Amino acid sequence: MAVVEVVTYMGKPDVMAWKYPNTELGTWTQVIVNESQEAVFVKEGKILDVLGPGRHTLSTENIPILSKLVNLPFGGKSPFTAEIWYINKVYALDVKWGTAPAIQLEDPKYHVFMPVTAFGQFGIQVGDAKTFLSKLVGTLPSFEHDAMVKYFRGLFVSNVKNNISTYLVKKGISILEINAYILEISDELEEKLKPEMEEFGINLINFYVTAIEASESDPAVMKLKDALARKAEMDIVGFDYNTARSFDTLESAAKNTGSGSNLMNAGLGLGMGIGMGGQFGGQMGNVSSKLDVNHTKQEDKKAKCKKCGSTVQEGLKYCPECGSKLGEFCKKCGAKLSKRSKYCPECGQLQVSICPKCNKEVPENSKFCPECGEKI
Q1: DSSP output for 54-74
Q2: 105: helix, coil or strand?
Q3: What ranges in 238-260 are assigned the alpha helix state H?
Q4: What residues have CB less than 8 Å from 244, skipping those under 6 apart?
Q5: Cis peptide before 64, with omega less than 30 degrees from 0?
Q6: 34, 73, 339, 374: least CB-packed within 10 angstroms?
């Protein structure tokens, strides 16, 4: 029977737990544990001890309980069967997650069902090596990040679905607007998932939702976006839905010419045109007048500089008289922002600084987080 002299870690960097392949050990065997690792000594399914960083000798001096369980004389190199598990304690901050397949949710604003996908990443660390090994790893030869994500996929999906649905109903917003609340959703999900993962010996360092998207190829989403585009177009020119439909009806009737029964339809179309001509003429006149008035008003819009009181053209970023800033603007697209806006309403760019450790908002130009002291 072979006697292992030196036991060292030979697994991959992204492995959370790795079992040394040779189980034939012997007294005086040297176990080398690197920094950010722990070695768990297992005999007949029982965890005897957890070894920290350094060099350890399998003897009754280093592992007193060994003599009781192995029951071998320790005067020489006595061989016995046991397992050495290496547990990776290093932080893993870029573990990816996603909801595949998509989640079916009802949009509370437009009352249509849409397939929604969410993506993000989270950071973890093995907190309790014994709990992690006994509850999650079991008899597997190794346990990697992908296996852990697969194991907790149901937990992630159920909590993500519940939180997104709650925000949609609570805020009364559309699924197409949910990305403005990603930071709040991430914080709530982290608080809910932490205690559930601690039961398996895993510390959840952070949890981020990076995107919540409705499928662009879904018919319901395509129809909704087309309707919103048409509504925006009508709002710009001053139409409402009924007026637009009236124009469609008149255009269809005018095109409907021919012989026989079509001749009667043509007459009906002409009659409709004569009767409704005055109405549509008035509508078009109103649209033109609105556009002219709006154009004039747009040119005449002025603003005042809060510092020197000068009257300036609206839309300028800096006062031409004193040079002071005339408002807050998006760092990415330059759109004007309201006070304390966290996200740009035009492009969705985050406008505030977030601490990478505690996820709290950090004042601009801060070198350290005022909450946890983390260097920014």
Answers
A1: EEEE-STTT-TTHHHHH----
A2: strand
A3: 241-255
A4: 230, 234
A5: no
A6: 339
Predicted local confidence at residue 16, as pLDDT: 92
Structure tokens at 54: 């350094």
For residue 120, give every residue at least 6 positions away whose Cβ sits within 8 Å of its Cβ, in sequence order, or none.
Answer: 96, 97, 98, 186, 207, 208, 209, 210, 211
Residues 85 and 144: beta-carbon distance below 8 Å = no
C-alpha distances (whole Å) from 141 to each of 78, 282, 330 are 25, 80, 51
Q: What's the burial of 208, exposed, middle or buried (CB within 10 Å: 0-12/13-18/19+)?
A: buried
Report the alpha-carbon distance of residue 196 to residue 143 in Å, rounded: 19
* pTM score above 0.70: no
Q: How far apart are CA 277 and CA 287, in angstroms?
A: 15
Q: How far is CA 146 from CA 130, 163, 260, in A?
A: 21, 24, 72
Name every residue whose Cβ is closer than 8 Å to that of residue 183 and which is 6 or more positions away in sequence: 342, 350, 354, 359
Chunked in runs of 10, what are the mean pLDDT values of the chain (376 residues)? 71 89 82 93 84 84 61 56 90 86 85 89 93 86 85 86 85 86 92 93 93 84 79 68 57 53 43 46 49 45 76 75 75 70 72 76 77 79
Asked if 51 and 39 touch (Cβ cutoff 8 Å), the reply is yes
What is the separation of C-alpha 66 from the centre of its chain, rounded to a whole number of angstroms? 48
311-313 and 142-144: which strand pairing? unpaired
Strands 79-81 and 24-26: antiparallel
